[in-house]
Amino acid sequence: MKNILNKNLNLKGKKVLLRVDLNVPMKNGAITETSRIEKILPTINLLLEKQAKIIIISHIGRPKGKVVEGMSLKPISEKLSFLLNKEVLFNKEPINKNTLLEINKISNGAIIMLENIRFNKGEELNSSEFSKKISNLGDIYINDAFSCSHRSHASVEGITKYIPSYFGLQITEEVNALKKITSEIEKPVSLIIGGSKISTKIKIINNLIKKFNNIIIVGGMGNTMLKHTGSNIGKSICENECGSLIKEILVNSKKFNCEITIPKDVIVSTSLNGEGKERHINEIKDDEMILDIGSKTISSIETIIHNSRTILWNGPAGYFENPNFQNGTKKILELISQKTKKDKIFSVAGGGETVAAINKFKKFDSFTFVSTAGGAFLEYLEGKTLPAIKALNQNV
Fold first, then answer.
1. DSSP 94
2. Among residues 52, 51, 72, 50, which one has the least CA distance to residue 61?
3. What's CA 390's distance to the chain center, in Å?
4. 20 to 30 A from 373, CA-CA: which of 53, 171, 347, 353?
């Protein structure tokens, strides 16, 4: 993997096209969560040290090749400027014949951010013409946007055919962390997986079941497992047409000697806003819904975490948005955090709701690695080859 730490890479005065993912959540024009911006700061600071001319390429939203008011990167350029304590110039026009003229005006160690790359039709079409056009804006290309690397888009895949291309620091860290939980594993290794639908994560489970010692299934997915293994789950969220998927998981778990753990007891209520009551899985009433895992289930998860050397966590244990049903998710976080801090475990977490829970309980620094990559993270875990990673490896 060739990245920008390559000793022979002289960047002084070079125009570096830096593709990052600044698709951050916004409300009324204000950025509400900045972790994706913060993650790219090490790469930018390294390029500044090397006296490169930095041209930032990114996107927000899905404008589908049109200029859309409210999807400009200008507020993000201002936030980045604040975090770096350095001016970030902003080129407000979609890429055109004047873009290179503006880039050529900047000095060594300066930063310019281009407007939303998805305002250009050629981006999502992965047009070779547009790929060449953006490659002509710089001397070197660096991809530091793992979260976009499952897309075959011009600024993440097509561009690598026309310009010397490298991995950035963040994407290198992400790929190395994911390798340690998929191919360079220190066993015993355990997966804690939750979320509402087992059907959307069956490929992850079936890919990892061959390599993992334990898979703990919680949340809405745990409800589906309980229902299809004979438990009454009342009016809990559940997928009804998943009998064959559950059978597939159970058959594969025996085939590959992977222990499947599902809830033994749960916290229930008659509504999302109600009080919680602990029930054994055989005691759930028809008007109750499962909203968290119970104390015995937490205890069994604690034992598995204690006996693991590697942990992957994707998906909360329950409806953690209500404090009455946050205990399971919070306890899992605390258990992994404690063991990670003692350097007893390699821990990786990822997925939108997982990151939201980590942020809620202020545990972002308690994992070896937290992925904010979303779809790319999940596709990597399914065993898919990501187009941008493949392109970088072929065209460095």
1. P
2. 72
3. 18
4. 53
In 3D space, the residue among 71, 74, 83 whose CA is nearest the CA of residue 38 turns out to be 83
pLDDT digits (tens, 9 = 90+) for 177-219: 999 998 889 999 999 999 888 888 988 999 999 999 999 999 9
Q: Would you call 321 exposed, middle or buried from its count of C-beta atoms within 10 A (0-12, 13-18, 19+)? A: middle
Cα–Cα distance, 103 to 119 (Å, whole number): 19
**Measuring CA to CA, which residue among 334, 351, 7, 333 is closest to residue 195?**
351
Q: Which amino acid is at 218?
A: V
Nearest C-alpha neighbor of 73 from the set 117, 121, 27: 117
The secondary structure of 27-58, three-state, reads: ECCEECCCHHHHHCHHHHHHHHHCCCEEEEEC
**What is the DSSP secondary-structure string of 236-297?**
----SS-HHHHHHHHHHHHHTT-EEE--SEEEEESSTTS--EEEETT---TT-EEEEE-HHH
Quick one: which of 384, 383, 354, 392 has its CA closest to 371?
Answer: 354
- Taken in order of first residue, the domains within the chain and their CATH numbers are 15-169 (3.40.50.1260), 176-381 (3.40.50.1260)
pTM attached to this predicted model: 0.87
